[in-house]
Amino acid sequence: MQAEILFDQVSETCHPPEGFAVEEIMSWLKGVAAEEGKSIDHILYVFCDDSFLLDLNQQYLNHDTLTDIITFPYSDNPISAEIYISLERVQENAAAYNNGNYYLELCRVIVHGLLHMCGYNDHNPLEKETMRNKESHYLQAL
After folding, report:
1. For a FRET experiment, which of 46, 58, 88, 95 has its CA 20 to 30 Å from that of 103?
2. pLDDT for the residue numbered 52
3. CATH of 4-140, one of 3.60.20.10, 3.40.390.30, 3.40.50.300, 3.30.420.40
4. Residues with Cβ < 8 Å from 70, sequence gap 6 or more?
């Protein structure tokens, strides 16, 4: 089965940073899934802004808060999902947590969505720590 990983954007202003290496990211994500014992059928990553993601958060999750990512799972093995990422949140979080490294923070959020599809959650402190450790582990392989 050929894994399909696509990147899209909701508007011209919602584009990834200069130098976003699509082929490298796709290969990396396939490796992450394989290491987690999963395969990828289809993942659509959609880059958007805070307003767009807030609307999704309110409509589908009944949350009235800003977030950096929402994952809509369709199948967990092989993985099939739509993953929406607010680039505004990613930029703000990069400034707060990654010394302004927007590219690194975007990759962290991208793999975060895939890790959700691999069965990881972040609802409590222990789950958050496990998720963060997994993200850091896989970022080192990028």
Report:
1. 58
2. 98
3. 3.40.390.30
4. 53, 56, 57, 60, 61, 83, 84
**pTM given for the model:** 0.95
Mean of the per-residue pLDDT values of the chain: 96
Q: Which residue has the tokens 């990828």?
A: 40
Q: Domain residue spans in the chain?
A: 4-140
Per-residue pLDDT tens for 44-76?
999 999 999 999 999 999 999 999 999 999 999
